[in-house]
Amino acid sequence: MTSAASIRYRPEIDGLRALAVSAVIIFHYFEDWAPGGFLGVDLFFVLSGYLITKIILAEREAGAFNLWAFYARRVRRILPALFIVIAATLATSMILHPAEQLERVAVSALAALFFAANFHFRDSQDYFAVAPVEEPLLHTWSLSVEEQFYLVWPALLLALYAWRSRRGVVAGLLIVCALTWALSQYLSLYAVDLAFFMAPSRGWELGLGALSAAWLEPRFAQRGGARLRGGLTLVGLALIISAFVGVDRTWPTPGLSALPVVAGAMLVLIFGAARSIAHRALAWGPVVTIGLLSYSLYLWHWPVLSFAAGLQLGPTSIWLRLIALGITLVLAVISFRFIERPFRQAGAALPPRRTLVVGLAGAAAVAAIALIAVWGDGLPGRYPSASAALASYKVGDVDDPTRGACHHVLKFKPERCNLGAAKAGQYDVLLIGDSHAGAIRPAVSVAATALGLSGRQASVGACPPLLGVSMAKFGDRSFCSAFNTFWPQLIGANPKAKLIVLAARWSLYLEPLTLSGSRKRRFSVVDRAGQIGRGALTEAEFKGSLRDMIADLQRRAPDATILILGQARPHRISAVECVRAAIWNGASPSASPALCDAPRADAQTRVDRADRILQEIADSDARVHVVKLSDSFCDAERCRVGDVKGLYYFDDNHVTVYGAVKLARDRDLAAHFRAALAATAAAKR
Questions:
Q1: Which residues, other chains included, contact 531 with Cβ-Cβ below 8 Å and sequence gap of 6+?
Q2: What is the pLDDT of residues 347-362, one digit of tens each?
Q3: Which residues, 6 or more positions from 223, have their beta carbon under 8 angstroms from its beta carbon?
Q4: How far apart are CA 117 and CA 119, in angstroms?
């Protein structure tokens, strides 16, 4: 009788597992060492497709396939260690996290337990934007994708086999791979979160692994000489490693970036049994050991890093990451030795259906712990004094409630988006820019109100007020099209506007366009010819585009004064996360902001470069004025994130409502508006 246990063991496949898990861990712990390490998950998908298909087909052809037994093996392989990690994560979160964060972790635990984590994180997170401290179970999204694959794959394979045996399987797999490949390429350009988290866009990776097992390996593994097969294995290994070190998070994923890993894995799976340098490297004892530990290593590495990151107010030091890595290794060894291996070896003692019942019971038990945290609103009574301090400080209540209705043009609700003094008719002040314009809106409103001026805004994140320059998000050229249509319409409806305010994160467009801190997304410049691919403007392009923008504004609104607002200096970490952690760890609300302040020397010098360019442009036109904000919230030594009354930033670079209003008053923005209007009037005389 053929079974999973009787499939010939290939140590080089454990070597591939070791390579995959090492890449993922290095990416999460030391990203600069393997910027494409996140593709280790794609390698895991190919391996899963190969191994599961090989087992199912072998058992089917031997007349020994049993669906209940198949799922029982999956339960024993995956669930015990997963349950322990989720339970340990919940328990640690109950000790370390405030109520809001514990509740969030508990919801993600429920999603992970019932293999819906990819749906949960797709709706709430950008994978590359999540700081480890925020989501200790983020990595479970990939397990959900695999389990969804396991639910449908046996039925699909058996149906195809019943149709035309292996030929039917191969034909069906080719169709599945082609369709899901096309879907993946489309989504990776136009719906990035769907592409990354959803199972259909990963289907071609699993499918090509399955195709290797069903057709390519049996047909081609023995073709050619041993030297040729060894050479192809080496090429495959080189492709995988080159992707891990040569690709980065800025590539569309899982689009073309995953191709080298998938192709390399297929070459190793097809030809890797040949004795060669690559085979010996992958089958080397220590590498195989890491491969055997790979599942436990993957499960533990992210929660350990997450909780370690919460111990520091600021970026996690390399020493703390190394300690976390050591703890991960110890936990993985314990997990493999006392959880994974015993449960996998217990197959004969427990009938398949009873195994499934026990698995459901285990899921229910861990889910009960999570539900207690959810229904208890994060259990704030665990540490009453810390919860009360957080509640009194309200570090999370920092964003402008109008952003959803005003900042995103496609969701624009005019009745909620006026700023300044209430006045019928045309608007006096028009605010145009990216997300920094949306964040600075309360400051502009305070200044406009003081002068009796009314206003409205047109802003979209990462869409610069630079004529002829647009941005593509992961290749989507239409990303800023609504913004580029809306602001001319706003001016056209208000041609007699007195003041047009341009605000943006100017330094962003002069540097590689990967946002810093905990909100990392990739944008590319779309030039005047509609071409994309570059990550920054040259200084000459920036000046030319801004001058063209000003000229266009002056043509559309000839009587308007143009006022350019600079940007406040960004910080390295989210102010909210830092202050919340400080209070939860015992700091008083009044003292916690100071613990998160940054030395002025750490603030980005690119802001100074942008300020210089803005001033040069203003100096060349009497109707253009600049207000520099880079020194706001800073003294000679430090840049502050807040004070005893509230926070100045709601992340690492956008000002809060409180920060914007304070900035307007401290910098007397109304006086700058008045002076700019007076200077323009004088220049016309």
A1: none
A2: 666 788 888 898 999 9
A3: 229
A4: 5
